[in-house]
Give the backbone structure.
Amino acid sequence: MAFQSANNHSLRKAFSFLVSVGTFFCAILVIAPLGIVFFHLVDKGASSVNWDFFTKLPKPPMESGGGMANAIAGTLTLLALAAAVGVPIGVLGGVYLSEYGSSRVNWWLRFFGDVLNGVPSIIWGIVVYGLIVKPTRTFSAYAGGVALGFLMLPIIMRTTEEVLYLVPQGYREAGLALGIPRWKVIVHIVMASALGGITTGVLLALARVAGETAPILFTAFGNSFWNHRLSDPIAALPLQIFTYAISPYDDWHRQAWAGALVLVCFTLLVNVTVRFLTRGRTVKV
Amino acid sequence: MPDASAISKPVAGYMAPPSRTADKAFEWLTLFMALTVVLLIVLVGWQLAAGSSGAIRKFGFGFLFSTQWDPVNEEYGALPFIYGTLVSSFLGLLIAVPLSIATAIYLTELAPRWLRQPIISLVEMLAAIPSVILGLWGIFVMVPWLQKYPFAWLKNPHHLGWLPLFRGPTYGVSLLAGGTIVAVMILPIITSLSREILVSVPNLQREAAYALGATRWEVTRIAVLSYAQRGLFGAIILGLGRALGETMAVTMVIGNRPVISASLLKPGYTLASVIANEFAEATTDTYLQALFEIGLVLFALTIVVNLIAQLLLMRFSGESLGRSVQ
């Protein structure tokens, strides 16, 4: 065996140390993009994040100034619509997996959930286009919300299932022993005690889909003005960043950096807060 | 002391048998909600097939092998996009896999304990950066830098420029730039998943190797890596699945030209990018159907890759791992 002779022991220890150092530098390389991207976002975007950015509509090209107020409002609207689609289905689906399903059925449901989670987000864009935009003949906030809702569904289902597993079995038994119907035990005892965890999962799913661009390209479509009806096209922060980034105008590039900084801060803020609040719990989301 | 008779007296309604209908209804409701995952997969397949049926009838299997993408003359072929998708994903894996697995090994086996959680958190934060923002950074920071240093070095005939892979004039936006941004996108996924797999290796494995006098690295190599091989392979395949479907960041740096060229420094195009760029401006029915068929090809590709990954990961641990990776 490789480690039988004693005289090369220090050599082997030295090699082991070298591997430690090498893999340490790999770890640094893996997290380096985070620091570099964040540095450039602040460097190029911070100066354009001002009061106008949050309160004004975008200006036409070649005119300086303007903001992304409609895109910020649009993203929040889309998130609310997405939550309306994804949260009830995802949470109740998670309840089935945790409380009712036999292990065989659960295996298949989880399997399909994982496969669904791997469907590229651009695919959701064209599927919802065919499902909603084409029949209604208009891009709309509804279509964008549905696309994002489908995207977050498997994530919420999974996290809900996992946090419900953490509720001690004794709680359920105590409830049932009192003669409370099972569905009430699940809703008022099991889900109530896991409410924090369920909320965490929902928030993380929202933070993730907030930055999604591909599914809303041909569903929400974008809009340079305020959206007055949910059946009309609506602006969104990631869409606006994309449009501005590939435009030829310097002023729009500056706005794109500012929008990116705001979006990243929102996403990271939700992530960090949620992880900080749920620190030490065993659920990984 | 409470009156004993008051306790034993049954409260009205308390003993009535609970309604089974409500219970059954709730169970069926949750089952139906859980079944939406199956329903949605069917819906996706059906929508894509229905949307592309015209193009499938018109072009047949030739669609997959034709290199023509000419909307003006209504000629559509998917090969340049399949090529671009596979090449950029492969380049992404080439860069990301060694780094990710080395990081996972460092985090589970070699790093001092106090350093582990901070690095894990940072990796998770990297995963939270939206694709479109990496694309923005890619256009304005990464591509000019790549063009200036690594590309200039690679295409120098004294270095690697004599290889067909690195020949020709460069514009920065290229297959290699696409592959690099894909690597950044999948680094956190493969890292977290590999870490989970290494963590799940039983400690008995490690202790046995330590008992034989192995050093830390030898323990990792002999006891941990050989045990975790299949799971790590599954993690890589799952990363490949994400790489194939990666859209925004790649679209912004790959150059978007439907050509097949040997040089990695030339622009390319991917399945996801062509949908993102051209779907909204597809003016004719055939054009739209061709893009739907591109979507169908992409869907089929990712489904197959994801199925393989899930099977590898499930067999490894008896249940599906990587459920924390989004």
